[in-house]
Protein 1
Amino acid sequence: MSKKIGTKCVHSGNIVDDKFHGSISPIYPATTYDYRKTDTYPRYFNTPNQLALSRKISDLESAEDSILFGSGLGAVSSTMFSFLKSGDHVILHDSIYGGTINLVNTEFKKFNIDFSYIDINDVDLLKSTIKKNTRIIYFETPTNPLLQIVDISLISSLAKENNIISIIDNTFASPINQNPINFGIDLVIHSATKYLGGHSDILAGSVSGAKEHIDKIKKSGINYGANLSDYTVWLLERSIKTLSVRVNAQNQNALDLAKFLDENSLIKKVFYPGLVNHLSHEIASKQMKGFGGMMSFEVTDKINSEDFVSDLKIISPTMSLAGVESSITSPSKTSHKKVDPQIRKKLGISDNLLRFSVGIEDIEDLMLDLDKSLKNNVR
């Protein structure tokens, strides 16, 4: 029986409680098992809860297999280093998460791994950047924090033509809105801390793809030791049950708020792929089922961005994103703080840019909160 994604969120990957017949997956917190009967060990990613959650995420992403890590960046680094060696080359979209940029800039040089940051939407530039030793093309869509859209099918086709592994960070979209494997991408990464967890109380990461690729990542991951505790795995499995409900509510709220802010004279620009004036709205419409709960907007010089954020009553100033509660942050002070200021400016990340993670509150309350704070802080 073919199940739709909301049903998969609830029922895929559950552990049947045969002993006590409970309606939810039991937790198996043991860190040691009878070696005569099994090689189960948490660091091997093969405890009952780890395997069950991997099946759930795989089902949501149309993947053969998945693996779980202690954080999103743990998933990124473990995946990268599983396929790279000294002398290899990586192409990265120049508009990606600041933590990933810092990982590449800091760690790749230690191992003589070459890398190029480019606008991978420029097809000619992408083709000319590919080298004989290029092993990975890495990108996000929508991007953090400017919500740029990358044509997934185009990237996957170019990667396959050149025998390159394509890796996407699908965090901002979530599996509800976008399934890159269906467009030919090799590996899909999530910071499960965000939408998969959804309640701002879980730190985790995941990678999904073909079993051949996941097996390779597992072999390296065992050495890196970045696995999750089974209690966190169980909490994440529980949270994903409401993923479809949460994300669809956030999709609708974000679209309404993007239109609301786009019409406000105190807002210079709104970055949201659901707006028809977004540069890549047509591409987003083809590859996304919903436009997500993330947006960014730039206030005009009439508004002091710090005072505006401080005056909000419902929307909270927090670093992370994708919780059921709405939150707002300054990328130049958080996610891209470690990025060189000149590069931030080149990327379009100004000090007046604010990233807005839309929650599931009543839309009228969110609109009123934004409107009041904007009016109160005109200078």
Protein 2
Amino acid sequence: MTVLESFEANPGKAPAVNLSLDSADLAETYDALSDLQFGNGRQLVAELGIQKGQRVLDVGAGTGRLAEHVASIVGDPALVAGIDPLPLRIALAKRRLGPRAELVVGVAEDLSKFGSQSFDHVYFNAVYHWLPDQPAALREAARVLKRGGRLGITTGDRERSNQVQRITEKVLSKPPFADIPVRDWLPYRVSVPTLKHQLHDAGLTPRAFSVRQFTDYFASAKEVLAFSASSSFGNFLRELPPKRVGAIRAEIVAQLEELRTQHGIPLERHTIFAVAEKI
């Protein structure tokens, strides 16, 4: 049984995600390199059918790029709310959207800052795989949704690891690093069947599901590592022995450079897109 399979059987034993590792540099780097998540979010927003005048909640709003896009659709930033546990990223979101948007520091499992049935749409874009208590987060999302409101999720697929994860696992599976335990820095990924069950248990009706494959091109291995560190708010490679991190990073860079083409370094990933409705 893998770590992730063990988590689905025993969620309380999943490896913890450290929210205290974020820094101003990581937040700024993520803001600059988050085109992949932003692109997925734009697709999700289109599939939710968000319209002018509707109220929308962005759970895991990060630096506010997608919230800004949604504000342009609904016609007024005051109709957009966002919540994220990372204060430095919420600060960037406030700088981007201004004082009229409702942007707060908080967690997905506790949306008590928002009233029941107060949103037409709620979405989790590239954040669901970071949530240690996903059922609680879905119950809260269902509570704040209006009847007929829609929930959208994009998240990593437990059944298909992304290529950076596979390369990291490969490096740590062979000498001289085979003695180092491999720990997934995306510990809460789910499969499509699990997510469907979670939605049903929260009182939400699944409307659309798909797993989409993407190939992203990076200019350099350094950019891949910067993206991995900033998108994980410092959790990527965080538990490696400090004296060996440099050598491990160098080997990961070497593996990445072997993939280089004239277009850059291509990396595959699989993302679940899900839309559900509150009946």
